[in-house]
Amino acid sequence: MPRTSTHTTPTRISLTSAIALALTLLPTALLPSAASAASPAAPAEGPLLTEAIAALPVAAERREGYQRTSFRHWIDADGDSCNTRAEVLLEEAITPPAVGASCRLTGGSWHSYYDDQQVSDAAALDVDHLVPLAEAWDSGAYTWSAEQRRDYANYLDDSWHLVAVTARSNRQKADQDPTTWLPGYEVCRYTAEWTAIKRHWNLSIDSTEKEKLTAIAADCPSQRLPTSPADPR
User: Fold this and answer.
1) When you count CB atoms within 10 A of the terminal residue's CB, does the N or C end of the chain come out lower?
2) Which pTM was predicted?
3) Read out DSSP for the chain?
């Protein structure tokens, strides 16, 4: 009578069971949780607006010698046929426009936060230096090299530095600072972005500007500055 093995099947079952048991005993720290896999790290927070304003250098403004042409713009820094203005419009578009020859933009839609307007024609938009070129000059850029002024005029690393807004709102603003002009909407955001740019570029504020910024910040007690990797901590 042939021998019948009574061990083969039990051995296979034991091995399978052992593998399953080992997997259940792996430390949970070695396995990524669904939450950690799905959730990106929270962005770093900037300082409180009130604190950032208090830390800005205060100095009298100097307009002498200012010319808008001292700030070369718009340039095509990466050679893709789209100049700085076009790059901002592409980045801020809610509905992306079509990009044609020589970076001609057609279609698309944008939101102008200064006046809470929806815009569907790129030609109706200006790209605003949130801290105007003249204001930057007055606040310290008069000491900069031509290259530094060019970099300021075309800076794309911080999304708040250049902003697409309706031509009407931008031209109402012109080169005014917050003592004489503020947007009709999102004043706390605007003030935080203004302060962040002054801080990032080490630009001063005059005493009247500081008084106005401080008064606005009092109504925005939890407002923090946006941050970029190059900002001081």
Assistant:
1) N
2) 0.80
3) -----SSHHHHHHHHHHHHHHHHHTS-GGGS--HHHHHPPPPPPP--BHHHHHHHS-B-----TT--GGGS-----TTSSS--HHHHHHHHH-SBPPEE-GGG-EES-BEEETTTTEEE--GGGEEEEESS-HHHHHHTTGGGS-HHHHHHHHT--SSTTTEEEEEHHHHHHHTT--TTT---SS-HHHHHHHHHHHHHHTT--B-HHHHHHHHHHHHT-TT-B----TTS--
